[in-house]
Amino acid sequence: MLPSYVRIAHVFSRIPRLCCQTSFSLKFIALLQIWYRLSLLLVEMLNTVVDFIVLYYRRYIILLMLTLIKYDNMKKKTTLYYAFLASVVGMSVGITGCDDDNGKVQLTSNWVNSSQFPGSPRAGAVCFKLLVNDQERVYVGTGVNTHSTNNVNGCYKDFFYCYVNDQNPDPINNFSRSIMWSSLEDVAPMPNEADPRNGAVAFALNGKGYVGTGFTGDDYKKDFWCYDPEGSWSDEKGQLYEGSWSRVADLPVENNLGYGVSFVLKDPNDGKEYAYVGTGSDGSAFYSSFCRFDGEKWSVAASCNVARENATALVANGVATSPRAAGEPEVHEYAYLIGGNDNGVVELMERFNPYSQSWEKLEVSAELNMYSRYMCASSGFVLGNSENDSECKQRLYIVAAGVNMWEYNPYTNSWKELGKPETKYESIPFCRYATAWTLHYGQEREELALFSLGSDTRIDIPGSAGSFYSGTYVYMP
User: Residue 473 pLDDT more than 60?
Assistant: First the structure.
């Protein structure tokens, strides 16, 4: 965000435009706009000054209050006395919470609250991103809430989409855009033939979204369904929904699976994009196998080195290791497989090389071993453009079960701890099985990440106690 003095100068730059208006009504309207914008900026600056005074001179303010209380008539216990006493307690407790462990005052946070997910609270949901009518949308759906009764075996199959509204500012977070959600009637739910589920996988390929595998509460699945945003569907009551679903070929594996991963990568050998689906569990065994999908049919792909479930898969650039495959450049996209469990924590980090069509083990850093116990059922996202990253700024982010957040530099294979994810006003709930994604906004295609849903219980263990969440948080580095 621009400094206040720059934005004030921008407002005053409108004055010549005001003088050029020939109509009195247009001049009057322009004058009102300038006055309104200046008023907002002055209020913002005043709030900043007050915050600064309160945060840095709170000890003196408390001392002043105590002095006034001392000279008040203690026997009468006047209203002034109780007001001052409440102020002292409030400032002593509330303001102290702004200090971090080193005694430094945190005035801002990279996380802010956003519009709440419009559906039922849940965990183990999936998401995929599509461009619909020149609008970038992220579709979020399925999942589980074992405490709710408006589902089947605790599972859902409804979908909502999230987008950035460039025309609607968010005054609460002082953000020039708003994060918006569709309503329940906007997006077609998965058809009756598709079971509600959690722990599924999802991806976008060739302008369509795909959802498959997962756990229904009774059994595991290997079916796949395609969402076409250009179609429409109506239910038995005549309610018209946006988009339509159709079944595609099942995942070509012997056993049904849940809690696997998916990612999309371009194969440099033929220039086509493929979706890869693999790992997971059938409730009794863990798997390392992968298959790839071209939009019509499946084929077998290379298996990763360690069988696991509840891992995180992210696509980002990386530096090639020697010896390189034929035609392989020094820097290109890889798929990173992080964390997971196999009746224990998987500490091995791997990446898939599309040039050699094989998995490579990455040297495990001390930082990864230190926090690997949190890397099961975590969420992740990537910020930065793979195709135009000459300054090597692209990073991977892992929100590890809501306990902490880490940043991974794929160019140096190094991790950095970012601390517990929290907004200026609250900590983000301790969440496993949350859902994370990124969105772009504005003409400059600026990027932000969103983190939503999740639970503080083990959804893969029936009967586990805990809470489910529907809050959505925005991360802006």
Answer: yes
List the beta bridge partners of residue 472.
Answer: 452
How many beta carbons lie within 10 A of that of residue 385, not counting itself? 13
Output Rg (C-alpha) for the chain, integer angstroms.
26
Spell out the residues 6+ positions from residue 21 whose beta carbon is closer than 8 angstroms to its own: 27, 30
Check whether 309 has a pLDDT greater than 60.
yes
Please name the helix (run of DSSP H) or strand (run of DSSP E) that holds residue 92, with its range, or none.
helix 79-94
- The larger pLDDT score, comparing residue 391 to residue 19, is at 391
Cα–Cα distance between 51 and 426 in angstroms, integer? 17
**What's the pLDDT band for 368 if we cut at 50, 70, 90?**
low
For CATH 2.120.10.80, list the domain ranges present in the chain: 111-475
Question: How many of the other CB atoms lie within 10 Å of CB of 85?
Answer: 15
| pTM of the model as a whole | 0.76
Burial of 133 (0-12, 13-18, 19+ CB in 10 A): exposed
CATH code for residues 111-475: 2.120.10.80
Mean pLDDT of the chain: 78
**Angle at the Cα of 373 (from 367 to 376), degrees rounded to 5?**
115
Amino acid at 381: F
